[in-house]
Structures are given as C-alpha cells and as structure tokens.
Amino acid sequence: MSKKDIIRRIAINTGGGDAPGLNAVIRAAVYAALNRGWECYGIRDGYNGLFLPEQYPEGGLVHLTRESVKSITHLGGTILGTTNRGNPLRYPVTEKDGKTHEIDRTNEIVSGFHENNLDALIAIGGDGSLEIANVLAHKGMRVVGVPKTIDNDLEKTVVTFGFDSAVSFATECIDRLHSTAQSHRRIMVVEVMGRYAGWIALNAGVSGSADVILIPEIPYDIEKIASMIKAKQRYGKKYFIVIVAEGAKPSGGDISVIDHPTGRLERLGGAGDRVAKELEEATGKETRAVVLGHLLRGGTPTTSDRLLALRFGAAAVRALEEGRSNVMVALDPPNVRYVPLEEATKRMKSVPLDCDTILTARDLGIAFGD
After folding, report:
1. Active site residue 151
2. Cα(150)–Cα(162) distance, rounded to whole angstroms?
C-alpha cells in the first residue's frame, strides 16, 4: 500500500430515508476500523456536516468510539441523523427576486473532507445518496458505498437491508386487518411505501394473503378489480384485502403525487385513497383505506436485516483495506462482493414480471388488475 493509500481516519454517513439496520452498519464499520487502528468519525445528517458545518455549533463530525456504538445494533433510525433534503448535487438556492435554481455543492464536501484530514468515506444510502458518493469518488475522494433502502430497488445487490423489516411489519399489519375486514365485511385497501418499485407491496401482499396487489410495474384497470370482487362475492366471499404500492398507477394514468419540492424527490401519496374511492363506487361495498407510510421505516430491525447490515459494514472496511474505491458492497448469496458504484446507481431495480413471486401470486388467485 502506498503512502497515498494509507488510512488513518475514516468518515461514515447515513443519507436519505431512514431504515432499520443503519445503526448496525455503523457499529460493524466502527469496530472493524478500530481493529485496524483507524479513527472513525460520523458525518451529521447525510453530507450536511461537511458542506454545511455552520449549522452545527457542536461540529459537523461526531467522534465514533467503541463505547459510543457498542449498544446500537438493535436500534432503529440512525445515531448520525439523516436527510433527504438539499441534495448537494442539485442544491436549491433562492435569489433576491424569489426565483429558485439549483447548484452543485459537491466541491464543498470534498474541501470539508480534506480539511478534516479524512482518508476515506463509507457512504450508507439509497440510489440518491450513492449517486452523490459516485460523484465524490470521481472527484478524488476514496469512497465505499453500502446499499440501504426499504424499497429494495437498488441494482447489483440481491437485497438491501431495511427491506425485510419493512415487509415483516407490513405483513403483520395486513394480518391484523383481515380481522377487522372480516368483521365488517369490508374492502380494506392498504397503501405501502416503495416509490416506483413494487417489492414491498408484492412480498407483503403474498405473505399476508391479499386478494389484490397493485404495483408500479403492472398498471391496473379498476373495472377488472371490481369485476373480480363482485364475482368472488357471488361465491360467498365477504371481505377483501387490497395492497397498493404508493407508485401504483391505473392504465393510461399517472402515479399519485402530493408535491414536488425544489431540490427533492417528488412526494408520492394518495394511491390507496384513490383506489379505495374507486372500488367503493364500482362495487357498492364499504371500503376503508389504511396508509402504513413511515411506520415501515421505524422500529427494531429483524434478525435478517441486522445480520446483513453487520456484514455490509464490516465488508466496507475490508474493501478500504484492500485499496478499493468507488465501489458498493452487495449481497451475492452466500457472499458479499464489490460492484462499481456507477453500475449500482444507473438504473432502478424493478420487479420482474416473470419472477417466481408474481407467478406464485397468480397461482394463488391474487389479482394484479391487469
């Protein structure tokens, strides 16, 4: 290893939406780094601690020690804080005339990185955070990414941590809703997160014995769903469970969006309410909508997510020790491997329409509205 490659101080950050398992990654990375004699620092709130240090009177970096991370594996959220506002690649700036435009502030992150004498960064995040990490790597920073998202929509890894916890909780909620739907003989519509990919809706819907699953990958026809419900009613079925991914959309229609703030991703919402209203009108059957929303992000990570997060954190440190940069750790069962960051972020991982889970759902009689 050349003198240029010697590592003494590393930084760790968590960006984008929170997910169960973030703290487990931090703990594993810190322990693995300290075992190699490296110092560890956490960047507050994504990349903000480096390019917006004035926001933190206590400092934009947090010294991470064995003591400070020893009991955080089971905790949800992130001890470093996170944000999905103010993307430094497209940072919103409002001029005196009230007009807003976006600027690239990643050079300030690079400057802050070097001013704090940091040698490498472990960036934990989804596609947005890792897109930033890829740019930083191309600007000379030594970066290893760790894939995090409850949506499971990152390419080049079989699964992301946070996904199993979200699906497990969604399935538990669906199980509970069977009871109340059956008692009142209602249609219960359950909206889940996932943005433009249907992984959470599909896995929770099949596991929770849903009657209908609507995902972004398969535009739906509300009349076909209503006809199926009416047909099953004639054969004696009294209640129905409909799972709707927040990015689901009708054939020839658009996804439901709440707003699209400057410098941020558009906020999806309303898909479940729309389906519930249309189904009640089409079937005449009492319908209720439940939005699980951010409940899917919180709480204790499952055993599967804890283990995956710990493996990812340790693997990120090994990657740095091996001299790697601009890579993401990825699960390729039974092993963890390294893939170029650019490949991992260039496109979203959607649900394949011929995947076994969809085939299984169709064999079980679950409708997709197509």
Report:
1. yes
2. 5
Report the topology of domain 3-161+301-333: Rossmann fold (3.40.50)
Phi, psi of 213 (to 5 degrees): -130, 125
Rounded distance between C-alpha atoms, residue 152 and residue 200, angstroms: 8
Q: What are the residues whose beta carbons fall under 8 Å from the beta carbon of 184, sequence distance 6 or more? A: 239, 286
pTM over 0.70: yes
From 18, 119, 127, 151, the catalytic residue: 151
| Packed helices 271-283 and 222-234: angle between N→C axes, nearest 10 degrees | 50
- Spell out the domain ranges in the chain: 3-161+301-333, 164-297+352-363
Q: How many CA atoms lie within 13 A of 348 on its CB side?
A: 15
How far, in Å, CA of 108 to CA of 159, rounded?
32
pLDDT at 197: 96
125-174 tens-digit pLDDT: 999 999 999 999 999 999 999 999 999 999 999 999 999 999 999 999 99
Asked if 86 contacts 48 with a C-beta cutoff of 8 angstroms, the reply is: yes
Give the other-Cβ count within 10 Å of 337's Cβ: 14
CATH topology of domain 164-297+352-363: Rossmann fold (3.40.50)
Is residue 81 very low, low, confident or very high in pLDDT (cuts 50, 70, 90)? very high
Q: What is the DSSP letter of 65?
A: -
Fold matches, 3-161+301-333 and 164-297+352-363 = yes
Mean pLDDT of 190-194: 96
